[in-house]
């Protein structure tokens, strides 16, 4: 059994739900064969989110961590390639904090790559009949903050841990009055199961195109 920690976020920005937590909870409730899954809900708060993540890792002792966040407007499930060392808030977090051009870890590397097999995970989700792609930016809000915090923890303290970040679209109920793409939470949960299995069994990523021109 491979121990996998899945994290999602509480609702933010006036939303009543967050598809990341809906999908994470569903995926952990019915994990795929060979996976022992744990689900943790993170606050949408700079600093506190990484503290809760660290505590969850210490408690569950996973081999793989997949953090998940909402990316309203994106049409597919996007597996993030890189986390950058900057907090630059277009909107305040749930505590009202709105940092601008502040390092997540002072003196830390400018960026970290995911230690998940990003392209293999995308291929697995697509093979399951769901839309997915590689993303080369996790933004500069709390999602990237958590991704970088996880990557820094792996790089400096837990070298045997592997982890990364996945962004997911809105759910249909969130966009009833908006012309935005969406995916049902149960479909996203299926994708997360595929990602968990792929990460558990893949050490060397696929060498296929997944870049972008802009």
TrEMBL record:
Top-level taxon of origin: Bacteria
- Recorded catalytic activity of this chain's protein: Release of an N-terminal pyroglutamyl group from a polypeptide, the second amino acid generally not being Pro
Q: Which residues form the active site?
A: 80, 143, 167
EC code = 3.4.19.3
Top EC class, one word: hydrolase
State the CDD domains in the record. Answer: Peptidase_C15
- Say where the protein is mainly found: cytoplasm
Quaternary state and interactors = Homotetramer.
Q: Which PANTHER family match?
A: PROTEASE FAMILY C15 PYROGLUTAMYL-PEPTIDASE I-RELATED, PYROGLUTAMYL-PEPTIDASE I
Function (record text): Removes 5-oxoproline from various penultimate amino acid residues except L-proline.
Quote the protein name from its UniProt record.
Answer: Pyrrolidone-carboxylate peptidase
């Amino acid at each position: 059994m491979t121990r996998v920690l899945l994290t999602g976020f509480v609702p933010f920005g006036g939303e009543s739900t967050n598809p990341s937590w809906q999908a994470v909870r569903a995926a952990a409730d019915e994990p795929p064969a060979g996976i022992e899954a744990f689900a943790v809900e993170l606050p949408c708060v700079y600093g506190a989110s990484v503290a809760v993540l660290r505590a969850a890792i210490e408690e569950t002792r996973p081999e793989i961590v997949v953090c998940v966040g909402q990316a309203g407007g994106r049409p597919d499930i996007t597996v993030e390639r890189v986390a950058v060392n900057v907090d630059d808030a277009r909107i305040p977090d749930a505590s009202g904090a709105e940092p601008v051009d502040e390092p997540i870890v002072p003196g830390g590397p400018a960026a970290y790559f995911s230690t998940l097999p990003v392209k293999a995970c995308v291929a697995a989700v697509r093979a399951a009949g769901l839309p997915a792609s590689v993303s080369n930016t996790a933004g500069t809000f709390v999602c990237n903050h958590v991704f970088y915090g996880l990557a820094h923890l792996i790089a400096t303290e837990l070298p045997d841990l592997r982890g990364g970040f996945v962004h997911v679209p809105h759910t249909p109920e969130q966009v009833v009055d908006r012309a935005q793409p969406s995916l049902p939470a149960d479909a996203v949960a299926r994708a997360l199961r595929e990602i968990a299995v792929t990460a558990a069994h893949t050490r060397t990523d696929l060498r296929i195109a997944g870049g972008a021109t802009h």
